[in-house]
Amino acid sequence: MKHFPIFIALEGRSVVLSGGGEAALAKLRLLLKTEASLHVFSPEPASVIVSWAHEGRLVLHRRALIAGDIQGAALFYAADEDDVEDARTSAIAEAEGALVNIVDNLQDSQFITPAIVDRDPVTVAIGTEGAAPVLARAIKADLEERLPTSLGTLARIGKAFRKAVEVLPMGRKRRDFWADYYYSAGPRAMDQGGEVAVKDSLNTLLDKYQAAAEREGHVAFVGAGPGDPELLTLKARKALDEADVIIHDRLVTPEILELARREAVLINAGKEGFGPSMSQDDINALIVEHGLSGAQVVRLKGGDPTVFGRLDEEIEAVMAADLSWHVVPGITAASASVAAIGQSLTQRGRNSSVRFLTGHDMKGFADHDWKTLARTGEVAAIYMGKKSARFIQGRLIMHGADRTTPVTVIENATRADQRVLESTLETLPNDLVAAGISGPALTFYGLAPRAAQVALTNTQEQELA
Ligand code: SAH
Predict the structure, then answer these.
(1) Burial tier of 336 (Cβ tally within 10 Å: 0-12, 13-18, 19+)
(2) 369 is catalytic
(3) For this protein, what reaction is catalysed (predicted)?
(4) Comparing 264 with 211, which gets the higher pLDDT?
(5) How far is ligand 1, taken at its centre, from the CA of residue 124, in Å?
């Protein structure tokens, strides 16, 4: 950052501008928004400048600027659109110890004037260090559209009310009050009855917040599903809408986090399979700490929180802290993955049970009832099964499983980059390596994708109907 943005107090201070043409006008239009005392030096000023002088909005000196003219000025603008004149203004400013801006000369300027979105007292300044004025204009246009014109009025009225709001305890409650005012109650009142209504709305809102009992913290353990935001439950959406703090794992996709309430604090507690991670104890402590502070905490877990999610440890920590909690189920990876290959988890005549296995547990590769699994027709959904593929293959074959048993791996189920890898028990470990599976992947032992269905033509569909 070559230029550091600051907001300079100009009330009662002098600002000097040399110039009387187009460049001078552009700067003066901005400067007239301030409370500075403006001095313009120009032998031939544009007529608008003359009328501004008549209106008392600036002091016009119909001559060139000379050294010692305005002492103690805060800023100088060299706006003569003439290199020699501009250099002269610049030298005078420098002798005064004031900062100078030379219009259209970034190199020799000590400060630049940003593009401004004005919702006084809310001001947005946009600068590109001269790199892309077009971009600055586009951003300005975008913000002009997005920020309601009433924002400045709301902020002004709100500022005068700050003292009154001190009756509310600091922190959450005050923040909620202001969020409610700026995003909801304030704009509504403005639309309905203008400034008077806005002032009334502040009093009504304050009464409401004073009467409301302090909200207690609460922890919702919410399933985020396999990644597609459309596979969130309505309850999960609601929890995201109400959350103050969202503590999520690495399986939760950015598209889902996008749906969080915009004031919510997002914390990534991502745990990597075998890699470095925040310890479970740290995660428990984090959930409890936020819950005790009175926050509505959403502990957001990929898939279903009750499947390989270490949910119980977190619930125990929350209960030990006497916090209330509830669980919102989600679609687990096995359900999402089996749908992706057009199969059922159970099927009459094939498998009347299905196992959810983990490839590894806290001790390393996990042991299971290999003997039963090795029987024909068994189906297992293997979570976290990439690294343990060779181990699982070895155990199953050792217990007599058919080497040609179908195995299907679904990577990134329901996401844009979903992939399906068809394999067999015999070739699984090599196929996994060859395919370069790097995203979360679910391995189905005993299931192949349903053979591609022949699409019916329209006429056939009509005949069937
Ligand atoms: N609670 C999660 C599982 C957590 S264990 C659930 O119910 O789905 C993490 C494992 O889940 C991953 O290693 C992978 O095997 C599986 N998984 C999670 N999301 C997945 C996805 N979108 N596609 C494929 N497998 C996924």
Answers:
(1) buried
(2) no
(3) precorrin-2 + NAD(+) = sirohydrochlorin + NADH + 2 H(+)
(4) 264
(5) 43
DSSP 275: S
The sign of the torsion formed by the CA atoms of 49, 53, 54, 55 equals positive
In the structure, what pLDDT confidence band is assigned to residue 263 with cuts at 50, 70 and 90? confident
Q: How many residues does the chain have?
A: 465
Active site residue 271: yes
Residue with tokens 């003439």: 82
CATH number of 14-113: 3.40.50.720
Tell me if 35 sits within 8 A of 55, measured CB to CB.
no
Domain topology for 335-461:
3.30.950
Class for domain 218-331, per CATH?
alpha beta
Q: Which of 80, 86, 244, 249 is catalytic?
A: 249
How remote is the CA of residue 301 from the centroid of ligand 1, in Å? Answer: 10
Q: How does the average pLDDT of the chain come out, rounded?
A: 91
Q: Is the CB of 413 under 6 A from ligand 1?
A: yes
The H-or-E segment that residue 383 falls in is strand 379-383
Copy the structure tokens of residue 338. 């089996």
**CB-based contact 292:172 (threshold 8 Å):** no
Domain ranges, ordered by start, for the chain: 14-113, 151-211, 218-331, 335-461
Atom of ligand 1 nearest to the CA of 304: 7
- Torsional sign, CA 37, 42, 44, 46: negative
Query: Does residue 432 have a pLDDT over 90?
Result: yes
- Interatomic CA distance for residues 132 and 141, integer angstroms: 14
Mutate to test the pocket of ligand 1, among 383, 410, 437 (most ligand atoms within 8 A of CB): 383
123: how many CB neighbours lie within 10 A of its CB? 13
* Tens-digit pLDDT profile for residues 73-128: 999 999 999 999 999 999 999 999 999 999 999 999 999 999 899 988 899 999 98
Set 271, 387, 402, 431: catalytic member: 271
Name the residue with the closest Cα to ligand 1, atom 25: 441
302 C-alpha to center of ligand 1: Å? 7
